[in-house]
Amino acid sequence: MAEPEGKGLFLRFGWPFPDMKDPPLSFxxxxxxxxxxxxxxxxxxxxxxxxxxGHNVERLQEMVExxxxxxxxxxxSNHYSCIxxxxxxxxxxxxxxxxxxxxxxxxxxxxxxxxxRIYSWFFxxxxxxxxxxxxxxxxxxxxxxxxRLGEGHWVHIFPEGKVNMTxxxxxLKWGVGRLVYDSSVCPIVLPFYHVGMDRxxxxxxxYIPRIGRWVTVVVGEPxxxxxxxEEMRRRNEDPANxxxxxxxxxQEELSHLRERAEELHAKLMAExxxxxxxxxxxxxxxxx
Length: 288
What we know:
It is a peripheral membrane protein. By secondary structure, the protein is of the alpha/beta class.
């Protein structure tokens, strides 16, 4: 598949995906192998080696599997650890984790996940799409994700745009706003917030997953942007303003979920005999 001129310029090994409207057998076979393998790792790490304090997780499972046919899904969450994706998907059911067609598409930093040919092969097989940070919302990865949404697929995005190692409250990037506003079929947006993944895989050496930790996951309610998108398109809203409006609403929902997740996690840790406090002004949360 030829790359559009100027797009994917900084991808060392070129655009990793074939024509997804008719993907070759080789791509389908490697995805069918890689996705269940990674899904099994996620389930074992999150739900067997560690423990999940889940709230409304059934809503996520329902949206992944039972949303109306042809309706795309965007999930958004905070990003506290390099292992958030894929490990967080351990909250899903085995049948989701083993289905290459069901599992999410997700942007991944090109300068981390696509720096070697084997990395490019592996992450693209796992439906990770190389995003070039700093190239803006109009780049090949975003166009590719819009195509997948138009086909009714699930896309997960970390709208903070990076691993939030200080756990501070960050302004979300507008890319998620473009995915909602420019999708040919308006997607359902499902926000969720998690606390504790930075203890499963700390953001400092040695980068070895831990066991025996607790992770709190709070899933919100679906956000329906159809009426707002239709109204903004009717009045020919400036696309930048539309993206900002959508992103601000998502940020507000994530902020509410953060408060709830931190409250529930603190209560859980107190029951376990550990003193835990949330992040304040950039100070990292943790047990004291």
